[in-house]
Amino acid sequence: MKIIIDAMGGDHAPAAPVEAGARATRELGVDIVLVGKRDVIERELAKYQFDKNRLEIVHADEVITNHEEPAKAVRAKKNASVVVAGRLLKEGKGDAMLSMGNTGALLATGLLIVGRSKGVSRPALATLLPTDKGPKLLIDAGANTNCKDINLVQFAVMGSIYMKNVLDIDRPRVGLMSNGEEEGKGDALTKETYPLLQRAGVNFIGNIEGRDVMEGNADVITCDGFVGNVILKTVEGMGSVISKKVKGLFLKNMFTKIGSLFVAGGLKEFKKMMDYREYGGAPLLGVKKPVIKGHGSSDAKAAFSAIIQAKKFVETNVIQNIEGHIGSMEVIKDE
Amino acid sequence: MKIIIDAMGGDHAPAAPVEAGARATRELGVDIVLVGKRDVIERELAKYQFDKNRLEIVHADEVITNHEEPAKAVRAKKNASVVVAGRLLKEGKGDAMLSMGNTGALLATGLLIVGRSKGVSRPALATLLPTDKGPKLLIDAGANTNCKDINLVQFAVMGSIYMKNVLDIDRPRVGLMSNGEEEGKGDALTKETYPLLQRAGVNFIGNIEGRDVMEGNADVITCDGFVGNVILKTVEGMGSVISKKVKGLFLKNMFTKIGSLFVAGGLKEFKKMMDYREYGGAPLLGVKKPVIKGHGSSDAKAAFSAIIQAKKFVETNVIQNIEGHIGSMEVIKDE
């Protein structure tokens, strides 16, 4: 198996992707392609041990920054690292790709270069959220706004297959994000989606509310990308505010610092729960090949987690299963 | 000034509203009308000191429960406590009303009995969120789904006036909840709303993201009620999950229990920050008289805070200011 990594994307690039890629050749038995500026990658790579037979560099000398309009940049910069990585993936020169760079550019690469799966009208970004009952999948987390009912149904199907295959969750419970639990609650979109989800071949548990997100009451949360983005960023923002508060609790004076010694283990656990980096990257579901978006702030450890995830994504045939499920059911096909 | 209280609404009714009402007659110099079952209220009232000249009971023998369809129940149960309270308010037999009961029933009472302000197309529920920079207003927090641009603009105007008058915030910063900060980001609704907000006579700071909610980067957050409800409940759910975690940190063993002694003061502060009850009730803005929804789980202290809030709501002429602002600007009028 060969995994293609955009070595130039992310806050800690190229260090984090290069270190993680080098480690993957030694520990995971996978081949790695690092895409980006050859001299920069080689200089970084010199710091780590890696399996020479399993690692290659493909040169790409452009980079798409956060200030560019993503779709336009992907079309214009044929030699941007993320675009080259996408092209290699499309041409079968690798089995999956991973980028920690600009989210919009990766989405555009997925849509314009890798291409949509047959029957999927809008691919979606799916993010794992750390909850009280383990990681849960929020889909769509921001790729699509102004969705239609069929989109939310397809998100539910794709998310269910991902959670079953990659996270080993049997019959993942699918919740439809709404503003009330009863069947009649919701806006026009969720009211139209509800009956379709009942016939979509997923384990639909009905409407869920914001409370259910962090309580982990659904394994897959399906929603419009506008709502998903708001949820994701609200949770991230609250997590960072509260982490600061809890830290502040202990730094107040000598006595509180002594107190922190007593609860050090628990604090570490708490910090781990609040740290999205433990949970790997966000798969882009609905495109023809496995594409994973790693968090922009990924360090080498987080990037390595994302590579493990990409490997399982490929091994468990997520995409073939998605295409099979969507192709077989009239109610959820859209083309 | 006379404040009408639905004495039968909320998890701790009639105890909490009755105790808070009795206290208000002694400490706030306001008159109180308690609406509900007379014998039940009298029995509860016997436990507290109150100013007899300032307190009256109006009998209402029906109650609307959480299991009823709100608008239907408000129409059918002419003698429900919340409906009677609304009628007294409409007839000028009080200056403001407060209920801790069924949210839908209070909204329906506001719309059907108290009535919309001239020019306001959809009244909204506005909730104060505890953030890192003090309480901020989320509007609409759940009264309206499938909003139009004009609704979001009116929410921004009403929320700004409320924050200025009742929370003494000078030129409240208005943020438009979106999935990205740049002007071009958003869904169809927010893209249409953006230019209108620039001409609405409020201190519009542009799009904000979920991260900004708990960081407190806007004083007024305007959004569709579906999105507002999801934000509010996500924050509440995450707050309760994390409070449990932090508590669990300290209850693990003898050593961690000792640790908790060192940080007791800070922990109390943290708990206070996570406790929405400190922040009073949620005003229903856009109706002709002051209507406040207290949190269902309000104790007597929270109910008393809501009475203080109702008093300031009346004293600072929030409603006249809203009607004046909306009436004077063509861009935000809708009738």
TrEMBL record, chains A, B:
A GO cellular component annotation in the UniProt record: cytoplasm
EC number: 2.3.1.274
Keyword Metal-binding belongs to the record: no
GO biological process entries: fatty acid biosynthetic process; phospholipid biosynthetic process
Reaction catalysed by this enzyme: a fatty acyl-[ACP] + phosphate = an acyl phosphate + holo-[ACP]
A Pfam family reported for this protein in Swiss-Prot or TrEMBL: FA_synthesis
Protein name, per record: Phosphate acyltransferase
